[in-house]
Design brief:
The structure holds two protein chains of two kinds. By secondary structure, chain A is an all-alpha fold. Chain A has one domain. Chain A is built from nine helices and no strands. Chain B contains six helices and no strands. Chain B has a domain of 164 residues. Chain B is mainly alpha-helical. Classes of the chains: A mainly alpha, B mainly alpha.
Chain lengths: 232, 244
């Protein structure tokens, strides 16, 4: 049992290192996904066309932009695995699926967190959001816990049908309804943190609790389901 | 050689006839025999379709989850469970759609709007979208076994996802009319015949579900067989070409 856990740890570290190294050398997050999320934030401003409304709905927009960008990152994360049969090779080599799941989830979390920090900065500048010190703490807690949940659920749904034709167009349909609780929870918590619409800072913590439940559930289920899922 | 295969058997034919009679009686009972509601007037008749539809949808999705769980846990990996799961989900999606449409029409007449963002409506919309996704996963291609495994996992994930979405949407907003019959403390009293019509709707729609399910499952088995035959034929043709 202990040796299995050691294998899982080794595999997950190797996978997270590999994914981040691929990202570091290709710079897809920096050159494509980050500008894409910036465009989304600007387009929201065009669509809503009112500074007061923008300030009020900024938390929701930050999280929507995060979810849209996440779709691109998840697709990319599994395109890397399925190109040249990399996932098949991992499977044939008898690599621990739990290790792959944890590794890919961690890599996704790191990238998402970087993106969310950038989106927060954009919201501060473009949407004139001014959180208090406590608000910042709450925002970071929300980001951290929401990202853990998103990392697990993104990897789980990303792996579903990996390698099948047409799965790229299917991913948004599967993933967006599944992350609805994160959108609701994270938006309400961030509203409380930003004080949007007169929300009190203390109102955010129960929503962070909801995000933690989500992360726990999908972490546990992903650990169980990811192995059978990628074994084609 | 041409073979004619039907999805009907004497038993399903009897079930079909019984269902047709039951649904016809529901139509008569709902539209003619039952009285108008004191408050809602004739719009209450929409409930005789709306409530049984959502009941069938829940039944169907429950069955999809059950068959998927059996498929995953059963060592024989019999594709019949996969086909039952898929057929059930298709019917479920159809009936959620009916329920959403009748609910919206009822809402327009009663609340003055087709849609309100309350918890139950929003959750139902998510239920609809989730199972459309499930059906799309079934059409991803690959072998029958790949289809069965993927869709079984997706169905089991949906079982997990739906309560989470429902719970979070509930926290988000709750305005919906409380279920007036299921609530034991409710003061609302339904007229005896209206209640009978509603229950008759549940019975006849359940019969309709069973009839559709059996036929759809058999049709899926035939579709799979055709796909297999097509593959065999293509291999045979290539062999003939190569042999020339």
């Amino acid at each position: 049992m202990t040796s299995r856990m050691q294998t899982v740890r080794r595999v997950s570290l190797a996978v997270v290192r590999k994914d981040l190294r691929i990202e570091w050398s290709s710079k897809v997050l920096l050159n494509q996904v980050a500008p894409f999320s910036l465009v989304i934030m600007i387009m929201f401003a065009f669509a809503l066309d009112n500074e007061g409304i923008l300030q009020r709905v900024a938390p929701g927009l930050v999280w929507l932009a995060t979810l849209f960008s996440m779709l691109v990152i998840v697709q990319r994360s599994f395109a890397v695995e399925t190109a040249d049969g990399a996932l098949d090779a991992l499977r044939v080599a008898g690599t621990e699926p739990l290790g792959i799941f944890i590794g890919k989830s961690l890599a996704l979390m790191v990238q998402l967190l970087a993106l969310e920090l950038m989106l927060l900065a954009i919201a501060l500048v473009l949407y004139a959001v001014e959180p208090t010190a406590m608000g910042y703490a709450e925002t970071f807690a929300t980001m951290l816990i929401a990202t853990i949940g998103l990392g697990f659920v993104g990897t789980l749904y990303g792996g579903l049908g990996a390698g099948a034709r047409g799965r790229e167009t299917l991913l948004p349909l599967l993933l967006l309804p599944a992350v609805a609780p994160v959108l609701i929870g994270a938006t309400r918590a961030t509203e409380a943190a930003f004080g949007s619409g007169g929300a009190q800072s203390s109102e955010g913590w129960p929503w962070i609790g909801l995000l933690a439940v989500f992360a726990g559930v999908f972490g546990a289920v992903g650990a169980l389901a990811f192995g059978p899922m990628i074994e084609e | 050689m041409t073979t004619t295969q039907s999805t009907a058997t004497p038993t399903t034919q009897k079930l079909g006839i019984a269902t047709a009679i039951a649904v016809s009686f529901l139509v008569l009972s709902g539209l003619i025999f039952s009285a108008e509601d004191v408050v809602q007037g004739s719009t209450v008749r929409m409930m005789y379709v709306h409530v049984p539809s959502i009941w069938v949808a829940y039944l169907a999705f429950g069955l999809t989850a059950l068959c998927s769980a059996v498929y995953v846990s059963n060592r024989s990996r019999s594709l019949i469970w996969d086909r039952f799961a898929g057929a059930s989900a298709e019917i479920g999606v159809l009936f959620v759609a009916i329920s959403l449409v009748t609910g919206s029409l009822w809402g327009r007449l009663t609340w003055g709007t087709f849609w309100v963002w309350d918890a139950r409506l929003t959750s139902t919309a998510f239920l609809f979208i989730t199972y459309i996704g499930y059906l799309a996963v079934r059409r991803l291609g690959g072998t029958f076994t790949q289809r069965a495994r993927r869709s079984a996992i997706m169905a089991l994930l949906a079982v997990l996802e739906i309560p989470l979405v429902h719970f979070s949407v509930n926290l988000w907003r709750t305005l919906h009319q409380k279920a007036s019959i299921a609530d034991p403390n409710a003061k609302v009293q339904l007229d005896g015949f209206m209640l009978f019509t509603l229950f008759w709707g549940l019975v006849s729609f359940s019969m309709l579900f069973a009839w559709l399910l059996i036929h759809r499952q058999r049709l899926m088995a035939l579709e799979d067989a055709v796909q297999d035959q097509g593959l065999d034929r293509a291999i045979q043709e290539r062999r003939t070409e190569a042999g020339r």
